[in-house]
TrEMBL record:
Keywords: ATP-binding, Helicase, Hydrolase, Nucleotide-binding. The lineage of its organism: Eukaryota, Viridiplantae, Streptophyta, Embryophyta, Tracheophyta. It comes from the Eukaryota. Residues 625-822 form the DNA2/NAM7 helicase-like C-terminal domain. This is Helicase ATP-binding domain-containing protein. Residues 238-616 form the DNA2/NAM7 helicase helicase domain. GO terms for cellular component: chromosome. InterPro entries: DNA2/NAM7-like, DNA2/NAM7-like_C, DNA2/NAM7_AAA_11, DUF6469, P-loop_NTPase, SF1_C_Upf1. Residues 109-196 form the DUF6469 domain. Pfam families: AAA_11, AAA_12, DUF6469.
Length: 1072
């Protein structure tokens, strides 16, 4: 039996062979990963140097996914069965059916190369899925049909014992779940390209970058002697000299067929790199040079494709003819291509969907043309065919209608009028139809066919490459559309016998026939007959063939570098362009570089900005994240620098130009104009460039071990609120971006803005809050940078990364305001020391207290911080915590959940019970004592008002029973209600009793021996004393012995110790 083919099988088998101990071993491959050199002796050395770091990076990705399994998507498996290809010990293929999936929820759909954990334990408890103590098997998704997302094929790491899963119909099936871990598609593609390089492949370009090359690569001497093809960018595109020089140099190499060349364009921030790239690609399109453009990410490939499409749209002369030469391909879901109206027509899957009906043999473009010609030449015959088909339909039972006409569709001779049959079939779904008159049928049918032809011709002109659809054919198609756009059809007797009717096309509003109107019909028929003669593409009913046709004849192709592996089986590519090349790992660049036929490549990027993302620290230290662009730059290969920046106010550009680019960048005349200086808020602090010193911040851990600084959050909010007011008051459009290197800070700012500072000033005010990675390539009018670090000793972590800082400082157009702690940043001995010294020298350094609004915001933030971290004492209620609650609380890892639990406990201990908890309809146990409160979308707290027997009294207390997920809450409530709620009716009544003092609820107490009506007392503060309590204006008293007072004092101290213990636990979790 033929084995199922798995790409990168060696790597896949290695991954599936790792034991849990090996996956959790951070240093598993440490000794096997060596430093990747700058120069290589051979292509074999080159490709082999990347293999160990790639394995380590894959290992690190798996380890990272295990640490976050508790938050990973989960699917339930309803069916699993070994496939025919199943064979021990390694080919453990299973067909799996998933339940509960929706095509509207792509986040839960599995795709090929997804790694999943199979387990019989549902991972939805508070502590997530503990892989170290529960049974599991790792598997990889091999195949998944997008149209049937519930059915997938997996390759398991171990055999599954299906007798526990597949049971008889009378027995309850055991559940099986799949937890998403990670996707290794890109790593598998890199693995394949590296091994392809080792086996041979197209090594022409790789060979050019193995070692230092001081030669100015260009056109070889024989090609240089040939006459230039005169290919230059259009003048209307307004390029500056450095941009034009870079483009012309790169375009020139395409003429050479003897040498292989790699050119580099260096595009610092704001220098028009994307414009330069799009103009160059547009020029290559006009030259019919088959070019592949790759980028590292979906976002970046969409951006450059969009810019090229804008240029193409402006240049078209025949409708949308020419769009078919531009093709975008990749993962449509991740690209969110359906949301991109400007690009959706260029995406391969959408294009195939549009073209597929056009090539169908019975109702495609050719069949529709034939039907229109028959209607015009023989309207009576067309009508009689319609009547015959209608009669057949009316004689067939409705339940057999579809099958009858399906059989009719296989009879080519009977279906020469298939379009008519389809019309009848569509009507047959209703009751029996009466035939329309000839006078009604003829114009209606003509209108339908005219609309169909307009759709099919527009589709062909828009989506077919120009090499398949010549301009003459496209012109004819658009002429046919225009010729009868406003025409109607009439039937008149022919001039010979007067008995046979013929059709005549007349223009709207005509009241008599003229020779000109007859000419319209003749011209229309002439065009319809001409189109099949000059457009000879055959009918195709196979989507795959249409897709290959589009891939093979498109001129400009766009994809991520990883997805370019799709082109290994297509027609050769002449030229490779890699945009954002400095963000692409060199080994990933090998995927497109090895494509067959490529002779020249152009790398466009800036190694001074963000590098590629690397998960493993071991791989990072080996140089695995280094780009080809960076390496060949270090080796001294020539780069064409774009040296004029158009984005930043000159006050903003001074420091990064000096610090990162050696003052090689010039400011464009537009950014030097006075109109480019904006003053959105009053004061020098809010000029074009300033560093705002915030010495009172406190860095702390937030979500995911990332840092945040609540004082800087408060400052950002205050500035945003003031800008929003200005925008609303002055009706001024203001675009603001907030950037922080730390995700926890980004999350904290976003959360606070949603709570306190929402609004858009009628669409005039926009705000984006993102991390540095999220702002790569972006720009806004105003950028506010939150540096977060505030420790005074100079510990700044990866904030010292020069490339990240470069991105931070170069996103603003008009204003850049940097928030930070001077002492920490100066003591860091990083470039931040230089930045602060520069700001002081230029009088751009400001202390936050100079602005009264900021000073007040900082003071409020400090108070809030202290209140947030106060212990849970001085409460009005005594509280008891169950062992189950303490156990589950310690298992929670999220500081944000701790904070929410602590906030809820503080409120109820002060007597602020949730409103719904006072309603008996919402009580959740048979005794109506247990309560379930929502902490967030997932977590629920189970608690109750209980009674505690003292020496002389029963006292109401709060009992915190458990903290669970919403899905586990019903079971927990049922268990507690069954095992713990053992109360008499009198005790239940005491637990349910409430004493309101204003808006809060205070605890009640009862004498153990009731006496004449004053036995129920309402406590003002159980934690302070159990004597002299008031109830509804009455003064009540209870005399206690000295022993009893000492007992209550001891109980109060024990209670405070437990409260403080819990508080310490919560606080320690908040600051991990």
């Amino acid at each position: 039996m033929k084995k199922m083919r798995i790409e990168g099988r060696d790597l896949v088998d290695l991954v599936l062979s790792w034991s849990l101990e090996e996956v959790l071993n951070v240093d598993l491959y440490k000794r096997q990963v060596g430093k990747i050199p700058l120069e290589f002796e051979s292509t074999v050395d080159y490709f082999k140097s990347f293999l160990p770091p790639l394995i380590e990076e894959t290992h690190a990705a798996l380890l990272s996914s295990i640490r976050t399994l508790g938050r990973a998507p989960v699917v339930e498996i309803s069916y699993i069965m070994p496939m025919a290809e199943f064979e021990l010990p390694n080919d453990l293929f299973y067909k799996v059916r998933l339940s509960g999936l929706s095509t509207d929820e792509p986040s839960t759909q599995l795709i090929p190369k997804d790694l999943i954990v199979l387990t019989d334990k549902r991972p939805n408890r508070v502590d997530g899925f503990n892989i170290s103590s529960e049974p599991y098997i790792v598997a990889m998704v091999c195949k998944a049909d997008p149209d049937r997302p519930n059915d997938v094929i997996i390759l398991a790491s171990k055999p599954l014992f299906l007798e526990d899963v597949q049971r008889s119909k009378n027995e309850k099936k055991a559940s099986l779940f799949g937890i998403y871990m990670t996707n290794i598609t890109t790593n598998v593609r890199i693995w394949n390209s590296l091994h392809l390089g080792l086996k041979g492949g197209n090594l022409d370009l790789i060979s050019r970058v193995l070692q230092r090359n001081s030669e100015d690569e260009g056109v070889c001497i024989p090609c240089r002697l040939e006459e230039s093809d005169g290919l230059v960018p259009h003048r209307f595109l307004k390029l500056n000299p450095s941009q034009e020089n870079a483009i012309l140099s790169c375009l020139d190499v395409r003429r050479c067929h003897h040498e292989n060349t790699i050119k580099m364009i260096w595009g610092p921030p704001g220098t028009g790199k994307t414009k330069t790239t799009s103009v160059m690609l547009f020029t290559l399109l006009n030259a019919k040079c088959r070019t592949l453009t790759c980028t590292p990410t979906n976002v970046s490939v969409l951006e450059v494709a969009s810019r090229v499409v804008q240029l193409v749209s402006r240049s078209l002369t025949i409708g949308k003819y020419g769009f078919g030469d531009v093709l975008l391909f990749g993962n449509g879901e991740r690209m969110k291509i359906k949301d991109r109206r400007d690009l959706v027509d260029f995406f391969i899957d959408e294009r195939v969907d549009k073209l597929y009906p056009c090539f169908m043999p019975f109702y495609g473009w050719k069949a529709t043309i034939d039907s229109m010609i028959r209607l015009l030449e023989d309207p009576q015959g067309h009508y009689h065919q319609y009547l015959e088909n209608l009669e057949r339909v009316n004689n067939v039972k409705s339940k057999d209608t579809d099958s009858v006409f399906k059989r009719k569709g296989n009879d080519h001779k009977k279906n020469r009028n298939e379009n008519i049959a389809e019309q009848v079939v569509s009507d047959s779904r209703d009751e029996e139809k009466r035939p329309t008159s000839f006078q009604e049928y003829l114009p209606n049918r003509f209108s339908d066919l005219r609309r169909d032809l307009e759709l099919v011709f527009s589709c062909l002109c828009t989506h077919l490459p120009t090499t398949l659809l010549l301009s003459q054919a496209a012109t004819c198609m658009y002429e046919t559309i225009d010729l009868v756009k406003d025409a109607t059809i009439l039937a008149v007797p022919d001039g010979v016998s007067g008995e046979v009717l013929k059709s005549v096309l007349v223009t709207t509003g005509s009241d008599r026939f003229t020779s000109e109107q007859v000419t319209v019909e003749d011209d229309y028929l002439k065009l319809l007959r001409l189109i099949p003669e000059i457009f000879t593409l055959p009918s195709m009913s196979n989507r795959h063939l249409i897709k290959e046709l589009c891939f093979g004849h498109a001129c400009l192709l766009f994809s991520t570098a990883s997805c370019s592996a799709r082109l290994y089986t297509e027609l050769p590519i002449q030229l490779l362009v890699i945009d954002e090349a400095a963000q692409l790992k060199e080994c990933e660049t090998a995927i497109p570089l090895l494509l067959p036929g490529i002779q020249h490549s152009i790398l466009i990027g800036d190694e001074k900005q963000l590098p590629a993302m690397v998960e493993s620290q071991i791989a990072l230290e080996s140089g695995f994240g280094r780009s080809l662009f960076e390496r060949v730059s270090i080796l001294g290969h020539k780069k064409y620098l774009l040296n004029i920046q158009y984005r930043m106010h000159r006050s903003i550009s001074i420091f990064p130009n000096k610090e990162f680019y050696g003052t090689q960048i010039q400011d464009a005349p537009t950014v030097k104009q006075r109109s480019y200086t904006k003053q959105y808020l009053p004061g020098k602090m809010y000029g074009p460039y300033s560093f705002i010193n915030i010495p009172y911040g406190e860095e702390q851990y937030g979500e995911g071990r990332s840092l945040k600084n609540n004082v800087e959050v408060a400052v950002v909010l205050d500035i945003i609120a003031n800008l929003l007011q200005v925008s609303e008051r002055t009706k001024t459009r203001i675009n603001v971006g907030v950037i922080s290197p730390y995700k926890a800070q980004v999350f904290a700012i976003q959360q606070k803005i949603q709570e306190t500072c929402s609004g858009d000033a009628g669409g005039l005010f926009s705000l984006k809050v993102r991390s540095v990675d999220g702002f790569q390539g972006g720009e806004e009018d105003i950028i506010i940078v939150s540096t977060v670090r505030s420790n005074g000793i100079g510990r700044v972590g990866f904030l010292a990364d020069r490339r990240r800082t470069n991105v931070l400082l170069t996103r603003a157009r008009f204003c850049l305001w940097i928030l930070g702690d001077e002492a920490t940043l100066v003591n860091s001995k990083s470039l931040w020391r230089n930045l602060i010294h520069d700001a002081k020298e230029r009088d751009c350094f400001h202390n936050s207290e100079e602005d009264k609004s900021l000073a007040q915001a900082i003071a409020s933030a400090k108070i809030e911080f202290l209140q947030l971290n106060r212990p849970l004492n001085n409460s009005k209620w005594k509280v008891c915590f169950s062992d189950e609650f303490k156990k589950h609380l310690e298992e929670i890892k999220s500081p944000e959940i701790y904070r929410k639990i602590k906030s809820f406990l503080e409120r109820i201990l002060q007597g602020w019970f949730p409103e719904e908890e006072s309603e008996t309809d919402n009580l959740v146990s048979s005794s109506q004592l247990l309560k379930q409160s929502k902490i967030d979308d997932v977590i629920r707290l189970i608690w109750a008002v209980d009674i505690l027997k003292q020496e002389f009294h029963f006292v109401q207390v709060l009992k915190i029973w458990d903290v669970v997920t919403s899905s586990d809450a019903p079971e927990a409530l049922k268990r507690l209600d069954l095992n713990q709620m053992k109360y008499t009716e009198d005790e239940i009544e005491k637990c349910r009793a409430r004493c309101f003092r204003g808006d809060i609820i205070v605890p009640l107490r009862w004498s153990v021996e009731p006496t004449n009506g004053n036995s129920v007392l309402c406590s003002s503060d159980v934690m302070e004393t159990f004597g002299s309590l008031n109830l509804a204006g009455e003064t009540l008293s209870a005399e206690l012995s000295s022993d009893s007072r000492q007992l209550l004092k001891d109980e109060k101290e024990e209670q405070e110790i437990e409260i403080d213990s819990l508080s310490d636990l919560l606080t320690s979790k908040l600051f991990l």
